[in-house]
Amino acid sequence: MKILVINAGSSSLKYQLIDMDGEVLLAKGLCERIGIDGKFTYKPLVEGKQKIDAVDVAMPTHAEAIQAVLDALVDPANGVVTSMDEIDAVGHRILHGGAKFTESCLVNDACIEAIRACIPLGPLHNPANLMGIEACTKCMPGKPQVAVFDTAFHMTMPPEAYIYAIPYEYYERDDVRRYGFHGTSHRYVSARCIDLLGNPAHSRIICCHLGNGSSLSACVDGKCVDTTMGLGPLAGVPMGTRCGDIDATIMEYLMGKYGYDIKTMMNILNKKSGVLGLSGVSSDFRDIEAAAQEGNKRARLALDKFYYEVRKDIGAYAAAMGGVDAIVFTAGVGENGGHDRAAICKGLEFLGVKIDPERNKVRGGENLISADDSAVKVFVIATNEELMIARDTKAIVEAL
Ligand code: AMP
């Protein structure tokens, strides 16, 4: 069975074609500047096939983008399948499933309506995700599609973890609560970690998904009991450009002082904050680290703030779970930043965390980086959200 995995944004669309027999990635790529001047990238992973790198392709809407993907996949010279019939189903990454979706589901009218109903909770992403579904329906009529939600894995949180201490009516009437994101990644790496631990009867795992966007989750026996992101993906630890948790009073103060409207204020918190806002250098951790090494004090502060908040949340989650058996680092910074991992874990010795400096030199893969005498096992596990989406899609389509 071959599954096309789609992650549709407002002006971009990432795709992967995965052969589920052996879970082999056949091709991947990206449509950028949809609705602007369309750039198309295609990377086949089959011997002898040529890639296409950011070429101009007219993509006024997501439908032309999907068509460009299909044309490339079935191209007689450089395609990886002979016809569209070989693609059995499509799996979509959907940002917000509200409290309604606790697992992935087949795309049908009810599912589309429910995703639409979650637009107020995910105003930037859900409309784009729906455009991806509509484009596939248009270009591949009748092909089964599955929706996989970033929020679903977190729906096992207990009320004390997901409720905000504001008037209860906002929860009851308006669905204001913690939802959490990166759920597909947390689900993937926590399951891999349980495997690496030898499938114990009881496990308490803290997953640190640290990339451009970052979130932590606490997982007991494979189920999420808390996570750092909230109603939206702005909450939690500081990120590339997002502020993470702040005191809401800051908004009142700055909006009053500078006359910002809420849109301007949110733009500052989403796009101009985090390690970019603190360092003034970049949102990219590699740039910030280079600047810090050259003596840039604000770059140093940005990194220290990030490490401090991640470390603090690890401590909080150990308290929430009554202990911790394993910590997992994943995503761009978590998988590649040995320095960053070491800096985060410095000071966690009291919890029984002891990193082995030699083991910690690894990048990606699935690697133990804690010392043999560390009470808590620490792993680097490369995340694979697309594979998780493809697996869910396969399971749902096979059960039809
Ligand atoms: P992601 O959003 O998961 O793609 O992660 C992107 C982030 O990973 C960027 O901030 C990159 O700077 C960071 N990253 C990639 N490679 C490294 C590295 N070797 N060391 C530290 N951060 C890295």
Describe this structure in words.
The protein has 400 residues and is an alpha/beta fold. It folds into 2 domains: 2-149, Nucleotidyltransferase, domain 5 (2-Layer Sandwich), CATH 3.30.420.40; 200-381, Nucleotidyltransferase, domain 5, CATH 3.30.420.40. 36% of the residues lie in helices and 20% in strands. Helix 1 crosses helix 3 and helix 11 (297-321) packs across helix 13 (338-345). The chain is globular, with a radius of gyration of 22 Å. 46% of the residues are buried. The mean pLDDT is 97. Adenosine monophosphate binds at residues 211-212, 240, 284-286, 331-333, 336-337, 340.
Task: Offer a quick outline of the entry.
The protein is built from 14 helices and 14 strands. With 400 residues, the protein is α/β, with parallel strands linked by helices.
Spatial strand sequence of the major β-sheet: 5-4-3-2-1-6-8-7
**Contiguous uncertain segments of 5+ residues:** none
| Main structural class | alpha/beta
Q: So what's the CATH class of the largest domain?
A: Alpha Beta
What's the count of strands? Answer: 14
Tell the overall outline.
globular
Q: H/E element string?
A: EEEEEHEEHHEHHHEEEHHHHHEHHEEH
Give the strand content.
15-25%
CATH topology of the largest domain: Nucleotidyltransferase, domain 5
| Straight-line distance between termini | 14 Å
Tally of domains? 2
CATH superfamily of the largest domain: ATPase, nucleotide binding domain
Instruction: Return Rg in Å.
Output: 22 Å
- SS summary, helix count: 14
> Approximately how much helix is present in the residues?
25-40%
Question: Architecture of the largest domain, according to CATH?
Answer: 2-Layer Sandwich
Question: What ligand molecules are bound, each kind once?
Answer: adenosine monophosphate
- Summarize model confidence as the mean pLDDT: 97
Largest sheet: 8 strands, mixed
